[in-house]
Write a structure and sequence with these properties.
By secondary structure, the chain is an alpha+beta fold. The protein has seven helices and twelve strands. The protein has a domain of 177 residues: 4-Layer Sandwich (Phosphatase 2c, domain 1), CATH 3.60.40.10.
Length: 262
């Protein structure tokens, strides 16, 4: 069975935020059916929600676990200050936060371990402004309210994505290519890290999925959409996504974080 986790936000303090509808967030992670160690980590930070993230570690036995854990620990430590509620923030501040996570991974792994990182962050709790940041091939999807589509809003930093962009591979071919697990960017590899950051147009009722490639390597986007739409709650959707990836083989660690905008 999967390992469900509720949002680990701190209890709300009475005052300005007491009557504000809050985003919902749930997370489920599983070691998978093949691996002995779960090198995925995740974060859900703040009440109201400031940040959700998924990190997929790499670098050999236990090293990947150290790298992903260091990245999300730094997000837990710094996000309440960097993305403080009640203040308007910029996408550049989110990018700087990811660079801080990169420094934490470099310090923890000594350059021998790395991790992907994908982040959904609230830039302004009052105005409802959201942004995403990513390094590597963990993904964020948007399920817009009232539209029967699933949009991948991050771009994979991977060898096969470069070949797809060049027209040398189709997306279907990329899914089975021998180099499909080779990534071109990772936290912990260099201090001069390039981070993709983008602010999004978000509507009330929109849902986001953050996931490691243990999920997307087993399920097609249309299958993910069908599971999300068929589930009655975020918890059910997250559980069913992980269970479906396990049923397909579970060849990697699997993590899914779902967020619903109120």
């Amino acid at each position: 069975m999967s390992e469900p986790h509720a949002a680990d936000a701190a209890p709300a303090e009475p005052g300005a935020w007491a009557s504000v509808p809050r985003p919902e967030a749930v997370a489920v992670t599983h070691v998978g059916a093949v691996r002995e160690l779960n090198e995925d980590s995740w974060a859900v930070v703040g009440d109201p929600l400031l940040l959700a993230a998924v990190a997929d570690g790499m670098g050999g036995h236990e090293a990947g676990e150290v790298a992903s854990a260091a990245a999300v620990a730094e997000l837990h430590r710094r996000a309440p200050s960097v993305l403080a509620p009640g203040v308007a923030h910029t996408p550049q501040e989110l990018g700087a936060l990811v660079h801080e996570a990169n420094a934490a991974v470099l310090a923890a792994g000594g350059g021998r371990a790395g991790t992907t990182l994908t982040v959904l962050a609230c830039l302004d709790t009052e105005a409802g402004r959201w942004a995403v940041a990513n390094v590597g091939d963990s993904r964020i999807y948007l399920r817009p309210v009232g539209a029967g589509v699933l949009q991948q809003v991050t771009v994979d930093h991977s060898a096969v994505q470069l070949m797809v962009d060049a027209g040398d591979l189709t997306p279907a071919e990329a899914r089975v290519h021998p180099r499909r697990n080779v990534i071109t960017r990772a936290l912990g590899s260099t201090q001069a890290l390039t981070v993709d950051v983008m602010e999004l147009d978000v509507a009330p009722g929109d849902r986001f999925l953050l996931c490691s490639d243990g999920l997307t390597g087993e399920l097609l986007d249309d299958e993910i959409l069908a599971i999300m739409d068929d589930a009655a709650t975020l918890d059910e959707a997250a559980e069913r996504l992980v269970e479906a990836a396990l049923w397909r083989g579970g060849r990697d660690n699997i993590t899914a974080v779902l967020v619903r905008i109120p």
